[in-house]
Fold:
Amino acid sequence: MNRKTIFAGLIILVACEEFQPKAPQAFELLDGPVSGLTEAENLQFLRGDVAFNDEVFTTANGLGPLFVATSCGSCHPGDGKGHPFTTLTRFGQIDENGNQYLNLGGPQLQHRAVPGFTPEGIPPNATFSRFTPPANTGLGFIDVVSDTEILTWADPDDIDGDGISGVPNWINLKEYVKERPNSVTQNGRYMGRFGKKAATYDLLQQTATAYNQDIGITSSFEPVDTYSGIAFDPEVSNQTIADVVFYLKTLKAPVPRPENTSILEGRVLFSVIGCNKCHRPEMKTGNSPIAAIANKVFYPYSDLLLHDMGTALDDGYTEGSAKTYEWRTPPLWGLGLSKNSQGGQYFLMHDGKARSIDEAILLHGGEANQIRNNYQVLTADEKTKLIQFLESL
Amino acid sequence: MKISLLIVVSLVICSTAIAQVDSTLFKRTQKDTSKLLLNMDAVYNRPFLSVSKLPVAVGGYVEANWQHLGTDGVSEGHQFQMRRLTLFIASSISRRIKFLSEIEFEDGTKEINIEFASIDFEFHPLLNFRGGIVMNPIGAFNQNHDGPKWEFIDRPISATQLLPATWSNVGFGLYGKLYKDNWVYAYETYLTNGFDDQIISNSENKTFLPASKLNKDRFEESFNGVPLITAKVAIRNKKIGELGVSYMGGVYNKFQEDGLVLDEKRRHHSWALDFNTVLSATKTYFNTEWVFNKADVPSTYGQQYGDKQMGGFLDVVQPIAWKNILGFSRSVISAVCRLEYVDWNVGEFDETGGNIGEYTVAVVPGFSWRPTSQTVIRLNYRYNWQTDLLGNPASKTAGFQFGFSSYF
Structure:
């Protein structure tokens, strides 16, 4: 009896990890760092991870008083796509002349408020659009693609006659944003690349703006309180912002699922029907102080350019120089894992209205009319294979 | 030089004191086992040591453990934890006036709490007055939480996180019991200081009653001036078991200050149902407690702070051996299992109509060895599933825990 007990105890001590849940495969998870970070970079990644996923804002540490979410991780669970619960609503801009409702709470609606305060509403007559929070993975790779590489895919006048144009969103730089080396400008404006309308220049702007507009947290970069309109003392430190930016830059690119025959056939169909004209599979990063993401080939399935998506997706709202019917090609990598961050369901396209990949494809219009028509004539088996391929990315 | 001298003198005094200890002077306070005991009796149903004829008795318990848990492939490694050191001091001021206090050190000295410090006046068995720092009688665990009484290393999630066990506060109240044949009927009711708005503004990002325990001022002043009402009725039959129904509720927010209105009064309500019994044929012990919470959360605040919560646990303890083990002649070994479930946010999303996730399910099988009735050595294997607010795939945590808890 005693020997058995001692033996059992030893087994537990030596093999206790065998009785614990196994780590998911790399292709089953979106979060995690890119490989090749230095030890110092690992430390900063961990600090950013805690700030992004664990730090919850309350009235005690600056939440609101108007807000959309209480933490970064609320909108990007597991660093994946968001859910309608944290969908952002933007309003008040109909053309490139800027937002006409900045004095009425624009551009972003803060539809929640701490007790005692009244949340915002959309002003009468203001047009608006809903934006599902995107996945965060691989953003660092996108951040260091050169402007010139992106511009090689632009075809504003459709010179090649394929029906696909693609234009950059030319935006004004925030004063705290540092331009990239060899940036391309047009009339003093710079190329945006993040966000549904590609109206955000880099991950510092994305982070500081999200703290401010989504959580109601002021920083030295975005000091104006969204409720009072007054510049406040920073409620989040520059160090924390830097850590979160670093975290976003060094999240790994989604790892594709293992291929099989159906997926390989779906990959062929993806090109045959022309999806790859906008959802370009391959990109290459430029130089970066973070060696792990410098000069790497990666596969986002996007061209980071704006395209006319047709009237069905025209909400009458825009940002930067984009037209209301133009949307940035969203990267498709990690698409198959969206359900794991959206509560087991799909909420696709910019506003989450597509409840399946099939629905999302059918919502494509404008420049994508022909590609959508090509999809519609595929057989059911071919559609399944194409969707399996998309879910494998 | 002075310090050295002081140390020498101290050592001499201590050694003298040790030499003077005569264990025959200490005696265990005899427990009255003739009556049916309820969870509400737990504060006095503990082993105490009294010295000679002094009207003061002391006691306490200690809990420590090792654990090795991992979540989704990431392990925290070997962890040694000193969870609790609790000291009791009881005093009979007169035959019908008693004082009892309980001071707890949790996680070393990370938390030091006076959990109980009250004077009881007995006017009649049905009418006793208790005042001071009292344990609000919500559920069974909050009343009966001493580590050595439980076969599991972790306290129940629903009792400690849906309810804030151990939850005590300053206040006054009445309690009483009535014995009739095989039955005992009991009640307790108190008015105490209450919660604060941290229950819907906390780092857990969910409605979380224990967040109010961070308000150390609650022993000095009420957050909003409205008393928290706690009441429990319990009934026990010698053959059937004990059933308790309890309620705790009150205003949790600061609705006015300096005469200025800040918000409407927002209330939180907790209801608990507890039951325990022993099957006489098999000596199987069942103990369960279920909790329902309802909070008035501002509709504009967002659904991450839920307005309804529910959960509970079921413990099953099956003694499997009574024998002499390593010289402990009255050892009992039991196979045990706990099932736990907590839904932190009952309801549907306004945006989609889909269910709000955020639930925890746990299964904790194990063994316990009681070398004496006042000491328990426990080996548990915990496996729990936790989903987030959106109901995404659950994170899984599992591992072994080994430790002990003993009165002293």
Observations:
- The first helix of chain B runs from residue 2 to 20.
- Chain B has one domain: 26-65+74-407.
- The helical segments of chain B are 2-20, 157-162.
